[in-house]
Amino acid sequence: MWIYFKRALLTFFLISYISGVTLYSLFFIVIPGVYNGSDVMSFLTGAEIIKSGNSEKLFDRATQFYYQRQVVYPEARFWLLPFRSPPIVAYLFLPFTFIGVKVSYYLLAVINIIFLLLFAHVASQTFNKLKITYLIFLAACVYWPFLTASIYGQFTPLLLLVLLVIFKNIKVKHVFLAGVFTGILFLKPQYLLIAPFVFFMIKDRQKYLQGLLVSALFFLVVNLVISGRALLDYPAFLVATEKISYGSRPFQMFTLYGLFKTSPFVRNISDWGLIGINFFIYTLTLFLFSRKIRPAEINKGFIIATLFTILFSVHALTHDLILLLVPILILWNGILSKKAISSYSNFEKTLDYQPGDESNLICRPPLEGNRGLLVRGGRHKIILFILYFLPLIIFLNNTFIAVLIIVAVSYFLMLSRSKKFALAEQN
What we know:
mainly alpha; 2 strands; transmembrane; membrane
């Protein structure tokens, strides 16, 4: 009886959630002129500057404001939504300058759906228990960070696909390709914080670095060719525009930096000082990660690495949490696998074991890539539930609780060696 009640309650909750986020998203998208407040406006501003031949002033606020008013003309513009991406992003948006803001906004939403379809297809080939592409797509499609990416005109679904490809290449030991794809995260530089974590997760670190350096060198050269010396102004420009007056909302960030910015205890510290504190904690965390996570613990390590990437990003809003879909799928696949693997015993029974079925006994030392302790699906489900519904905390208009949850989950996973909470690596 209790089982049926739980199923009915879960069904009601899921239907309510899907209906709620879908209607809320549609409400935003049909608002007249919503595209003028979206990040598409920012991307087109950078593209228009390059198109006009003034790329050397790409990160000049006065120049950006002038061209942004041209983008929205004949409507008035009284504030600047700055272009804060690398020059290559502005270059990629050049074709959009010929179709206007409105069409660009809705076209980008369609492109994001295509990226999500590709993500679901790659995921179905990556995880051995998640073979139904449309189910993955539907779960991702109603994930609140994806919907906010569409509402605000972001291209984070592309980077979600890149992150999954990185994970897939690590699993199949194509670490050079993993390094190359990691370099694509230069499109949003804060996502590169994951690279050192990946470095410590794998054994063939030299090949990973080679791939990363090839990709990084390519992006550096392209950005220099596009913007010239303007690229040198980029770091200072990012810090200068990390303010509420430029659309940056620290109280809505899922980051340690955002927590610092809204805390009364460190509010008087300069932005550079807070970034320094953030970097120090990041470095310390990276050291602990290198000591606690074994190279064979890819699943567990990648979940933790993704959480820390978001936590230590100076700028990470709701749409950036779309990266959590990769850890969510890792957990989902692990739950469906129902495997029990032990690093400490060579004679453990799997969860599928039936008396007389000796084929389900692990009678050998764990092979590379198979490390992990006994799976406890219940706790995996709790973490999966937290990661999937965590973004909804944004409706409280304060992410303090969400940041604390990310801190608790990520550090607990990294520091815990409990047999009750380890991830099976055979998935």
